[in-house]
Request: fold
Amino acid sequence: MTMRCSRRQAIASAAACAGVGLIADRPAGAPAQRPKAGAPFRYCFNTATIMGQKLPLDREVEIAAQAGYQAIEPWVRKIEEFASAGKSLDDLRKRIGDLGLVVPRAIGFADWINDDDNKRAAGLEQMKRDMERVARIGGLRIAAPPAGAYNVSGMDLLRVAERYRNLLELGRQMGVVPQLELWGGSKTLRRLGEVAFVLTEAAHPDACTVLDAFHIYRGGSDFAGLRHFNGRLMHVFHMNDYPAEPPREKITDQYRVFPGDGVAPTSAILRYLHEGGFQGFLSLELFNPRYFKQDPLEVARTGLEKMKSAVAKALG
Reply:
């Protein structure tokens, strides 16, 4: 498929790659948050880390604040459950802001990528609904993973780039930016090079990505590839670690551990991010059943301590 790009679009894309025109991560009416003087990154809590405790979303928000995080990364299905229970998303947005938190992104799985036109159209309608809910609580971005192409090999990445561009246009209408997401276990968008290709060929000023230490490892890319990403266009990086066993080809999400507790080259990862201009959120994302059996506030606090310790070790 041929993709046309006007001169204006090309200039806009170049500006995006230069890191200008970024969306600020802030609660409504609040000044933009940036890392404190001397602090290279900010810290976010992905609620997957305590999903096994089956807490309501408002309690997850409180835990993130009590543990000392600056942001929370909720799951769209929890936002939907919250609203379906008759609770106010507007009140939740206010509560998030009152606690000093922001919502840099949310996790969803709408199928925007599928080759089947009908399935893709249904996925885009789902994405609209998801974006609307995310916007209601003050969220700025939403995940755009390859959920509809997880088992599809040899997918035309130019088609993927065009679909991602269309998704970005939808995001502009809805006020929520879709972040292209790498999934290491997928047959599509499993490697850093694939993500870089789609971001580039989408040629859209809002194009951005969220990367994940576990997924980069699982997909087989070398972490040195992070040096070629503009950190200012990532906004969020998922922090975690993994053990030496099981082997890469067989490892699954449940083996994720706290940063520093595994064999990931965490110091190198953080240096690559820092050198690439990343000043966004390190978001703790774990799915470990052992942590699901522990006190959720203690898990959140331990995760923040581990991330800060890893940053201090890497950057001094």
Notes: Confidence is low (pLDDT under 50) at residues 1-33. The longest strand covers residues 42-46. The beta strands are 42-46, 71-73, 141-144, 177-181, 209-212, 236-239, 281-284. The domain at 40-315 is CATH 3.20.20.150 (TIM Barrel).
